[in-house]
Amino acid sequence: MIRLRWLAAASLSLLLLAGCSAPAVPPEQAAGCVPGAGDAPTTGVPFSYATNVEIAGGDGYRVLTVRQPYPGGALQSVVLLGCEQDAPVLPAELTDAPVLRTPVAGIFAYSTTQLPMITELDVLDRLTGVGSLDLISDPAVRAHVESGAAVEFGRNFAIDAERVVAEDPPVLLTGGEDDPALPALAAAGIPAVGWADYLETGPLGQAEWIKVMGALTGRDAEAAAAFDGIEQRYTELAARVRGTEPTSIVAGQPYQGSWPVAAGDSTAGILFRDAGASWSGERAQSTGRLPQTLESVLAEDGDARIWLADGPWRTTADIAATDPRLTSIAAAGPDGQVWTRDRFLGPTGGNQIYERGVLHPDEILADLVAILHPELLPGHEFVYYRQVPTG
Question: What's the pLDDT tens digit per position in 212-221?
Answer without folding.
Answer: 999 999 999 9
